From TrEMBL:
Annotated Pfam families: EarP
Family, similarity comment: Belongs to the glycosyltransferase 104 family.
Biological classification of the source: Bacteria, Pseudomonadati, Pseudomonadota, Gammaproteobacteria, Pseudomonadales
Record GO terms (molecular function): translation elongation factor activity
Catalytic activity from the UniProt record: dTDP-beta-L-rhamnose + L-arginyl-[protein] = N(omega)-(alpha-L-rhamnosyl)-L-arginyl-[protein] + dTDP + H(+)
Keyword Transferase part of the UniProt annotation: yes
Function summary: Protein-arginine rhamnosyltransferase that catalyzes the transfer of a single rhamnose to elongation factor P (EF-P) on 'Lys-32', a modification required for EF-P-dependent rescue of polyproline stalled ribosomes.
Protein name (record): Protein-arginine rhamnosyltransferase
Keywords: Elongation factor, Glycosyltransferase, Protein biosynthesis, Transferase
Length: 377
């Protein structure tokens, strides 16, 4: 069934909000043949992920998705069959009124942030009665069978495994970013928020006997990195060496290229929600820099995911991983935790692939949304 979907998104967390909704919109069109209109209040964020996007256009089409700037002063439009407010953004009141008046009823979904907390499964799919007789349903992405699943395109894992098995393809891709990896060099990607723990971690990596290449896309962590390197500035293409550690700054790349960067690396440090999930699909050990919240709520989310993720790991490996994530999130010294993790590397690498395969065996989020609409009808 071909339906008309519209997705509303206010960009709060840098590129994560735009990244998730852009992936969802593209997948609805490409894999399910749906018509999609994406409302964004910050087209500049989208343009970093999709360079073809015109930041000045009020309305445009990219890869079959209609993209509209969410105006400050709302102009009435006909509501879609399915209206998604992403991450609890507030729909224009006039649009909600139009949804009430529409002859064909509208499915209203609140697509929530990704979380592994226990309460998520109990709230997924619950309705909330709204004025005018509308019902809004809460749709929770998640890692368990009682949630809506995870964003994953068709054939993603197979493409990733084929790429990782092809040394020539990996080298060609890295060269396209200006990167020439040396034989035997461990590759680590770093995309994170500012973090006081960075210097202690990099000191530990630089003092190891194993040569490491740290690939750092443009982002908020660059100032911390510059201070540790004691250089006046860092720009795309710049490279520095400290001990066994070689550092190179990369351009901010589109989503598809970022996936391949993660696939190239042995260890990925990621942030937010979108890159966090893409690192899991890479099937490699990772470190998550969860978005810090003033009330400390991020710590509960971190612990909930860790509890789920380490299931099946031997105690030593589970403990090493948990400790590294906790000290990184707390911004405290990383050296001992990094050394402990290194001792568990083979087990953690095998576990990352097992985790990926287990999550990929479940229906993906976009398919679950389409099925939810069909069942609702």
């Amino acid at each position: 069934m071909r339906a008309f979907w519209e997705i509303f998104c206010t960009v709060v967390d840098n590129y994560g909000d735009a990244g998730v909704t852009w992936r969802l919109a593209r997948q609805l069109v490409a894999e399910h043949g749906q018509r999609v209109r994406l409302w964004l209040d910050d087209l500049a964020a989208l343009a970093r992920l999709c360079p073809e996007a015109d930041v000045d256009a009020a309305r445009q089409w990219q890869v079959g998705v209609e993209i509209c700037r969410w105006p400050v002063h709302w102009q009435p439009v006909e509501p879609a069959d399915v209206v998604i407010e992403a991450f609890a953004c507030r729909l224009p009141e006039a649009h909600v009124a139009a949804m009430v008046d529409r002859r064909r009823r509208v499915l209203w979904l609140n697509l929530e942030y990704l979380s592994a907390e226990d309460w998520v499964g109990g709230c997924h799919g619950l309705p909330s009665l709204q004025p005018g007789g509308l019902q809004k349903f809460f749709f929770f992405p998640g890692f368990t069978t009682d949630t809506g699943g995870l964003l994953r395109e068709r054939g993603l894992i197979e493409r990733r495994r084929a790429f990782q098995a092809d040394a020539v393809a990996r080298a060609d891709f890295l060269r396209s970013l200006g990167v020439q990896a040396c034989p035997g060099e461990r590759l680590i990607s770093l995309f994170a928020y500012e973090n006081a723990a960075l210097s202690s971690w990099l000191e530990a990596v630089a003092s190891e006997g194993h040569p490491t290449l740290l690939l750092v896309p443009e982002g908020r962590i660059l100032d911390d990195l510059r201070r540790w390197l004691a250089v006046p500035s860092l720009a795309v293409g710049d490279g520095q060496r400290r001990g066994a550690l070689r550092v190179q700054v990369l351009p901010f790349v589109r989503q598809e290229a970022y996936d391949r960067l993660l696939w190239c690396c042995d260890f990925n440090v990621v942030r937010g929600e979108d890159s966090f999930l893409r690192a899991q699909w890479a099937g490699r050990p990772l470190l998550w820099h969860i978005y810090p919240q003033a009330d400390g709520a991020h710590r509960d989310k971190l612990e909930a995911f860790l509890s789920l993720y380490v299931e099946g790991l031997p105690p030593a490996a589970a403990g090493a991983l948990q400790e590294l994530w906790r000290v990184w999130s707390a911004g405290v010294a990383m050296g001992p935790a990094w050394s402990a993790l290194a001792d568990q590397w083979p087990e953690l690498r095998a576990h990352a692939e097992r985790w990926c395969a287990r999550q990929a065996a479940r229906p993906d989020l976009t398919a679950a949304l389409v099925q939810f609409y069909a069942d609702w009808l």
